[in-house]
Amino acid sequence: MKIATFNINGIGARLPRLLEWLDETKPDVACLQELKAPDERFPEMEIAAAGYRAIWHGQKSWNGVAILAREAALIETMRGLPNDPDPSHSRYIEAEVDGVIVASLYLPNGNPQPGPKFDYKLAWFEALLARAETLFASERPVVLAGDWNVIPTDDRDDVFSAARMAADALSQPESRACFRRLIHAGWTDAIRAIHPRGPVYTFWDYTMNAWPRDAGFRIDHLMLSPAAADRLVDAGVDRATRGKEKASDHAPTWITLR
Q: Could you please report the per-residue DSSP string of 74-132?
């Protein structure tokens, strides 16, 4: 079972790239973020023609998340987080697919920090941690997939330049502490389980020639409950997708489970 996460950065503008990627890589489940489209503008027919069922939680101009499934049934289990500090933002959707609970999430960016946007990021993270605790207690295979907007460490393995990102909300100790709480609670960072060392970037900015210079960082994560981690076979990043014309600034990140 191949499960991928892809911040599409506007499903209207990037639909050709999305359909191309789905055809080339054929993930069984694809979690999308930053749809930047209201519910009625989600391209359901085009996604269906590509062989995927879909559920989505859209929002005009900003945010928006979706889960696509090929062949298997897709049963929605939650839309939005309980205790979400701002439920007007569409940042979380969850479903059961072939016995696995899969969540597509888009954690707030938090910039500029300090300030209300960073406070919102931490408050949203707390709501996510509470949901993660409930899911963990179920002892079921669970995959929390998405754009977490957290660079886990200052290592070159996670970020091209820790000094360059030091003031950014993605690198702050408070948000990193929330991420580590998940790991300490027993969740597995799938990419690092398969690739413990070496740069595995998932995002390259459009500015400063970041993609040709490989000036990227790792913010797209798939976190696995123990029952899912026991089935982990492989994980990786579809880097080539980032290099195509009119691409998202994120690359799809994926796992394979037995």
A: EEEEEES-TT-S-TTS--EEEEEETTEEEEEEE-----SSSSHHHHHHHHHHHHHHHHH
Q: Which range of residues forms the domain containing residue 208?
A: 2-257
Report the CATH number that the domain containing residue 165 is assigned in CATH: 3.60.10.10
Tokens of residue 14, six digits: 């990037």
Looking at the structure of the chain, the number of domains it has is 1
> With a cut of 50, which residues of the chain have pLDDT below it?
none
87-125 residue pLDDT tens:
999 999 999 999 999 999 999 999 999 999 999 999 999
pTM of the model: 0.98
Which structure tokens are listed for 107? 């954690």
Q: Is 70 helix (H, G, I), strand (E, B) or coil?
A: strand
Distance CA 84, CA 2 (A): 29
